[in-house]
Design a protein that fits this description.
The complex is a heterodimer of chains A (473) and B (443).
Chain A lengths: L18 H4 L1 E5 L12 E5 L3 H12 L23 H6 L16 H18 L3 E3 L5 H18 L8 E5 L4 H9 L3 E5 L9 H7 L4 E7 L11 H10 L3 E5 L12 H4 L3 E3 L2 H4 L14 E3 L11 E4 L5 E4 L15 H36 L13 E4 L5 H10 L6 E2 L8 E4 L7 H15 L3 H6 L11 H6 L11
Parallel strand pairs in A: 4-5, 4-6, 6-7, 7-8
Antiparallel strand pairs in A: 1-2, 3-9, 8-9, 10-11, 12-14, 13-14
Helix pairs in contact in A: 4-11, 5-6, 11-13
Chain B lengths: L14 H11 L27 H12 L6 E2 L12 H7 L2 H4 L11 H18 L3 E2 L6 H15 L6 E5 L4 H11 L5 E5 L1 E2 L2 E2 L1 H7 L4 E7 L11 H10 L3 E6 L1 H4 L12 E5 L14 E5 L11 E6 L5 E6 L5 H4 L12 H38 L4 E2 L10 E6 L3 H10 L2 E2 L1 E2 L4 E5 L8 H11 L1
Parallel strand pairs in B: 1-15, 3-4, 3-7, 7-8, 8-9
Antiparallel strand pairs in B: 2-10, 5-6, 9-10, 11-12, 13-14, 14-17, 16-17
Classes of the chains: A alpha/beta (473), B alpha/beta (443).
Chain lengths: 473, 443
């Protein structure tokens, strides 16, 4: 492999210096306001535009993106981000203020209506809100909708529990707790799927909802989904679909058809909007008819005259974002779906699943369960998965997600996505194979070829220094 | 495959490669890999057309083109300042925008350093010791701050006190976030767009968990009683949370000087511009709350060679480790927006920020004076200093006036039967005289 990071070194103590080390200025604050309403001074970096350009270009050269090489992070779905969508989101006509009159933003509302419709079709849902600004925010929105539904049925006080499989994303647990629910953890069966007996024991009249990822985080389709749905529904609970793994199902199965009542879509995963170093994303939420009345405000609809307007559903839970969500991300998602259409979306899933299965076949590690959808979890066995990851960096590839889900020892959770070629997958497999043969000493010493060598995370946590002001301490 | 119709344009597989890979896996077709029972298999079509890049671009361009081209004098929590081209070009570097959360710090030093620098700039702007590296927006940041109060305080209060003029959406977000917790929201009256300090003193008692004030407030008024508000919160044993933004913080009283425990707000006032409400939640707090802080934190450490390097830290607070006991459920945040804000702030520098902030005091003062000179207009309505925006009273129905202004090409807020709110910044000041003329015509 041939990926090497730039290594801009300043001296023995820093790589690229901090902005503050390049030059700050402490300015005295003067204004036409009374003195007691203003601060005295402000000290911040002051650099010329060329200096800033170099600073950020150097930093970018010390960062790995999907455009740098394969990025097979399981459950994060890091796929190529088309460039044209960036241009569309940068159009002045996209940059409007949210408090404009509805007549004057028919384009914005029309696009939102279109995306609501696209997502509803893809998920088999009856209504969609675009408001949640991330997947976890979508989970929280979905749980608030479920809570409002039970409340409206007079069961708000009774249904105090959310059931979540042990293999689920951590956000599921956190979102349920944030919404005030007790979490009931559902142990997985030996084959990594939902244990139906355990499910029977877990759900009851306290159950508000079951949150499920399908295919799950091991890349396995929950084949008993109809039984699971029936069990939850019979108990009076709702079934929530975590859309993190939807990229595996496009055009093959829809959450709505499987019996799910609520779902979120991670547009930054399934619909290729950039994660941007950790966000922004967007987490639209789809619901079936009986829950449509509870969707957040605002929702967009089209009148008989063809005019787009926002409205507040009758039992709306209200806002979950200060305005209408991460709008520019939604523009990119709409453009991506408009580019791919039925055939492109379906092919994306086909190739993502093919890539995962092909790579799983080639990795030298024990892959405990199968067959796989978009991702698989290998076990590094005697090796430390974190060390394996660091060593993979030396082979010029980004490692998979490590040590999660914790039901697999030394887990390497790998999701190549549809955008990797056979050659690229072979290179990834070669890196896995090379690392698997190496001794612990070599692994502990890795990485050697990156800008920074192995970083001491323990000291960072024990002695937190979170700003340049804290560096002198 | 690439360039052709009928598949994903971003999947690079040639038919031969696909065949080889299927062979290696041991199946005849891709469909054989889908382990989905026939009863839930989807055999229909979405009915979504595929388009070439050019067609998709034209389609979305046409759609957005239906927006009217208006000069916006709009604010109320979502602000636009001129974003230098530098910000677009550098933030679009694909190593930044196509990267993920920095779980492997050795290959994400660039982004980690940017976020560390972003946190540091917020520390200087707020005077507080800790800043995280983003929440979704100002509304969710406020809600997270209230939840922090619930976790971090020793007393048992349950009331979250907010100004009565809090934006409706912000109020609803707060109620949603507190809905599952033992906290409730109460409003405090306002005078001239700022908190009624006497009413706050009445309201604050042992049951008060959290006191929220804004500077500037949603009407653009500069709050003159921050120290008193902070003292009242302190006496009640409540957390004092201040709402602001990076431009206002460059000029107005430093939150740490008035006793703020937490500062929240929408930091996207720098770096983004009007984006239909897409924001960047600012979150800074005192050091004693470090282990209760929601969201991600970047810390400085050292690498194996003893050279300073950065990493995500204190992740045991986060949902992927702590699950239902995490300090928040946030995972994907607004990192790239924070990068844009940081570059914008750095490009202005301290003097540039102070100059910009001073303009945000002087421009509304001048615009208000011009509007006030019109018969039938009173501006500003509130006897306060203003930042960016102010309320105007008109002696005609405000709805009609707003419609006429829109016909003339201007967007303003209607905030009452006879009240209009106007926001002026560096991006619309060139049209201020035209706005005044349009007001003149309407009245």
């Amino acid at each position: 492999m041939n990926y090497d990071q730039a290594r801009w070194t300043h001296d023995d103590e820093t790589y690229e210096p901090l902005l503050s080390e390049k030059g700050t200025r402490d300015v005295e604050v003067e204004s036409s306001l009374p003195d007691d309403l203003t601060r005295d001074s402000l000290e911040l970096p002051e650099l010329s535009e060329p200096e800033l350009a170099r600073h950020y270009v150097r930093l970018s050269e010390q960062n790995y993106g999907v455009d740098s090489g394969p990025y097979p992070l399981g459950s994060c779905t890091m796929k190529y981000n088309p460039k044209f969508t960036e241009d569309l989101a940068a159009r002045p006509s996209a940059a409007v203020h949210p408090d404009r009159s509805e007549e004057s933003v028919q384009g914005t509302l029309g696009l939102m209506h279109g995306l609501q419709d696209q997502l509803a079709r893809i998920g088999g849902m009856d209504a969609v809100t675009l408001q949640p600004p991330a997947g976890a925010a979508g989970e929280f929105a979905g749980i608030r909708i479920a809570a409002a539904f039970h409340e409206a049925n007079g069961e708000g006080d009774q249904r105090t529990e959310i059931v979540i499989p042990d293999s689920a994303h951590g956000t599921n647990f956190a979102s349920a707790a944030l919404a005030g629910y007790d979490v009931v953890e559902l142990p997985s069966a030996d084959d990594g799927r939902v244990d139906l007996d355990a499910l029977d024991a877990a759900v009851g009249e306290e159950t508000a909802a079951l949150m499920l990822t399908n295919p799950n985080t091991l890349g396995l389709f929950e084949r008993d989904i109809e039984t699971i749905a029936e069990t939850v529904h019979d108990a009076g609970g709702l079934l929530y679909y975590d859309g993190a793994n939807l990229n595996a199902l496009l055009g093959r199965a829809r959450p709505g058809d499987m019996g799910f009542d609520i779902m979120h879509y991670n547009v930054h995963k399934t619909f290729a909007t950039p994660h941007g170093g950790g966000g922004p994303g967007a987490g639209p939420v789809g619901v079936v008819d009986r829950l449509a009345d509870f969707l957040p405000d605002p929702h967009v609809r089209q009148t008989d005259d063809g005019v787009f307007e926002t409205y507040t559903p009758e039992n709306s839970v209200g806002h979950l974002h200060g305005f209408a969500g991460n709008w520019l991300v939604l523009v990119k998602a709409y453009a991506y779906i408009a580019r791919l259409g039925d055939d492109g979306l379906s092919d994306a899933s086909a190739k993502a699943v093919l890539n995962a299965n092909y790579l799983a076949e080639r990795v030298p590690y024990d892959v405990p369960h199968g067959p796989f959808h978009h991702e698989f979890v290998a076990s590094a066995g005697d090796q430390d998965a974190a060390d394996v990851a660091k060593r993979m960096l030396d082979y010029g590839v980004h490692p998979p997600t490590t040590k999660w889900p914790d039901i697999v020892p030394e887990a390497l959770m790998t999701e190549p996505t549809e955008v990797e070629s056979k050659r690229s997958l072979d290179q990834l497999a070669d890196a896995f194979t090379a690392v698997a043969d190496e001794d612990d000493e070599t692994l502990h010493a890795a990485p050697e070829r990156t800008t920074a060598r192995r970083i001491d995370q323990t000291t960072a946590a024990r002695n937190p220094r979170l700003s340049w002001q804290a560096l002198d301490d | 495959m690439s360039g052709q119709r009928g598949g994903s344009p971003y999947a690079p597989h040639t038919p031969d490669e696909t065949a080889e890979m299927l062979d290696a896996v041991g199946v005849d077709s891709e469909e054989d890999l889908f382990d989905i029972p026939a009863s839930v298999r989807f055999d229909g079509e979405f009915g979504l057309d595929a388009r070439s890049e050019q067609e998709a671009r034209r389609h979305v361009g046409d759609l957005l083109g239906a927006n009217d081209d208006l000069t916006e004098f709009l604010g109320r929590g979502h602000y636009a300042h001129y974003v230098p081209s530098l910000v677009d070009h550098l933030s679009q570097r694909s190593e930044f925008i196509t990267s993920y959360t920095q779980y492997q710090p050795e290959v994400t030093q660039g982004f980690l350093q940017v976020l560390f620098e972003y946190q540091s700039m917020l520390v200087e702007l707020t005077g507080l010791e800790i800043a995280n590296c983003s929440m979704y927006d100002g509304a969710t940041a406020l809600a997270e701050a209230a939840l922090l109060a619930d976790r971090a305080r020793s007393v048992d209060g349950t009331a979250v006190l907010v100004p009565e003029n809090l934006r409706t959406a912000q109020f609803e977000v707060l109620e949603n976030y507190l809905g599952g917790q033992d906290l409730h929201v109460e409003t405090v009256p306002t005078v001239d767009g700022t908190l009624d300090v006497d009413a706050l003193r009445e309201a604050a008692d042992a049951d008060t968990a959290f006191v929220y004030a804004e500077n500037p407030t949603v009407t653009g008024a500069i709050e003159e009683s921050l120290r008193e508000i902070g003292d009242i919160a302190d006496e009640a044993g409540a957390l004092f949370c201040l709402g602001s933004d990076p431009v206002a913080l460059s000029l107005l009283q430093r939150p740490s000087d008035v006793g703020a425990d937490v500062v929240v707000g929408d930091a996207a006032a720098l770096g983004v511009g009007h984006a239909y409400g897409m924001g960047l939640g600012l979150f800074a707090c005192r050091e004693e709350f470090l282990r209760q802080v929601p969201g991600r934190l970047v810390g400085a450490s050292e690498d194996q060679n003893g050279v300073r390097a950065y990493t995500l830290t204190l992740q045991t607070r986060e949902q992927h480790i702590r699950r239902e006991r995490a300090t928040s459920n946030i995972c994907t945040n607004q990192a790239w927006v924070a990068l844009r804000t940081a570059i914008h702030a750095a490009s202005l520098g301290p003097q540039g920020l102070v100059d910009l902030a001073n303009d945000m005091v002087d421009l509304p003062r001048a615009l208000a004076a011009d509007l006030d000179a019109i018969d039938g207009v009173t501006a500003p309505v509130h006897d306060r200093h203003h930042f960016r925006e102010f309320v105007v009273a008109v002696d005609r129905p405000a709805g009609e006036v707003c419609e006429e202004l829109e016909t003339d090409g201007f967007a303003v807020h209607q905030v009452g039967d006879t009240e209009i709110q106007v926001c002026i910044t560096d991006v619309n000041e060139h049209a201020a005289d035209d706005l005044v003329a349009a007001f003149e015509e309407a009245l």
